[in-house]
Amino acid sequence: MMRFAGKLLVLLVVVLVCSSPLVRANQQLDDLFDEEFDDDDEELLRRVEQKHVDQELEREQQLAHAQSAYNMAAEYDPYNQQQEQEQEEQEEEQGAPNRAPRLTDPCRGVRCGAGRICSVNHDENKAECICIPECPIEHDPRRKVCTNLNETWDSACEVHRQRCLCNTNDPLCRGESVRHVHIDYYGYCRQMVECSESDLADFPRRMRDWLFNVMHDLASRNELPEPYLELEHEAETNMTKRWTNAAIWKWCDLDGHPHDNTVSRHELFPIRAPLMALEHCISPFLESCDPNGDHRISLQEWGKCLGLEEDDLTARCAEITKTDESERNDIEAAV
Ligand SMILES: *[C@@H]1O[C@H](CO)[C@@H](O)[C@H](O)[C@H]1NC(C)=O
Ligand SMILES: *[C@@H]1O[C@H](CO)[C@@H](O)[C@H](O)[C@H]1NC(C)=O
Predict the structure, then answer these.
(1) How many angstroms separate the CA atoms of 291 and 296, rounded?
(2) Of residues 82 and 306, which shows the higher confidence score?
(3) Which of 23, 164, 217, 270 shows its CA 20 to 30 Å from the CA of 11?
(4) CA-CA distance, 29 to 286, in Å (whole number)?
(5) How many helices (H) and strands (E) does the chain have?
(6) How far is residue 65's CA from residue 58's CA, in Å, rounded to a whole number?
(7) What is the distance in A from the centroid of ligand 2 to the CA of 58?
């Protein structure tokens, strides 16, 4: 999601400049997100964030290749390992001549959770997931994160690392208060601008537009996962399906952790975290998508809060989500 955040930023800034902001802190969704975490919540959030980290790292890797400057990032980049592995396999297939036999790297194919990297325990020649020793230094203010403690941290990596340290009772853990630290939104912590009633009333329309634009943009850059291409094509060619298909795409996309036909408050992270700092109505809007307050958003609720006709929304995630189930077959080594 962060990959198109840049584009999205431009879009939103344009939209925002045309609307009039008002000032008053919004608490509702913050309260919703600040509730006590149980272990399941923690696990879920970690998965959602991990997906982000993966996407972030993929982007970072591209940068690193161009600048060969992101050594640390590349070291804990699972995609990098995968590529290396593929390369090695290719070489093996070609029977690369004159090559000394190699020991298999126990970290091959091992993916650790956010804030962790795989490390080889040489005594036992075994893979272990350990807390990232050091996060890459971030200079870009957009990579700063505001935590649920309303503290600006250097990067998402720092948040994940600190949580790992605390959960493994490492002396580097900064204290009990950061055990459940999580990313609230990207960028520096700031005073949130109030969402006026008229802004909120107009928000579903802007959100629909935005969803379609993002989907369209992803498709035009060949970054939309294959199962969604038909939805996108339909949306493009049939005006009556434009908003509904975009809504279905985003909902199915959000309902990924796990695929349970409902979008939980944690699954909203990919939409909420990048938009919070830019879009003063995102919290009250998402709140309005959960009118019965059960912290879950059904496809019907999603359609309704986007101002769509309920009849148009049929859950098409079933066939869509089956295909990317394989994503999750990665080996996860326990700490
Ligand atoms: C969070 O921190 C920012 C920046 O220090 C501050 O302006 C804002 O009022 C704080 N928000 C809350 C809810 O305390
Ligand atoms: C566009 O979508 C509507 C609603 O599903 C459908 O009734 C209509 O036949 C479609 N039009 C075209 C040209 O496919």
Answers:
(1) 10
(2) 306
(3) 23
(4) 8
(5) 13, 9
(6) 11
(7) 38
Closest CA to 78 of 270, 335, 332: 332
Query: Residues, the chain, total?
Result: 335
Architecture of domain 197-322: Orthogonal Bundle (1.10)
> What pTM was estimated for this model as a whole?
0.62
Pick the CATH number of 116-186 from 3.40.50.300, 3.30.60.30, 3.40.50.10490, 3.30.1330.10: 3.30.60.30
Which residue has tokens 């094509």? 233
Instruction: Give the whole-angstrom CA distance, residue 270 versus residue 316.
Output: 20
DSSP-assigned states of every residue in 101-154: --PPPTTTTEE--TTEEEEEETTTTEEEEEE-S-PPP---GGG-EEETTS-EES
pLDDT tens digit sequence for 234-254: 999 988 889 999 999 999 888
Question: Strand pairing of 263-264 and 126-131?
Answer: unpaired
Spans of all domains in the chain = 116-186, 197-322
Determine whether 159 is exposed, middle or buried from the number of CB atoms within 10 Å of its CB (0-12, 13-18, 19+): buried
- Residue 277 is given by DSSP the state T
Residue from 230, 237, 240, 316 whose mutation best tests the ligand 2 pocket (most atoms within 8 A of CB):
240
Which residues, listed in sequence order, are joined to residue 292 by a DSSP beta bridge? none
Confirm or reject: Cβ of 87 under 6 Å from ligand 2: no
Q: Give phi and psi for 86, each to the nearest 5.
A: -60, -40
Ligand 1, atom 3, lies closest to the CA of 190
Q: Are 303 and 244 in contact (CB under 8 A)?
A: yes
Measured distance between the N- and C-terminal CA atoms of the chain, rounded to whole angstroms = 27
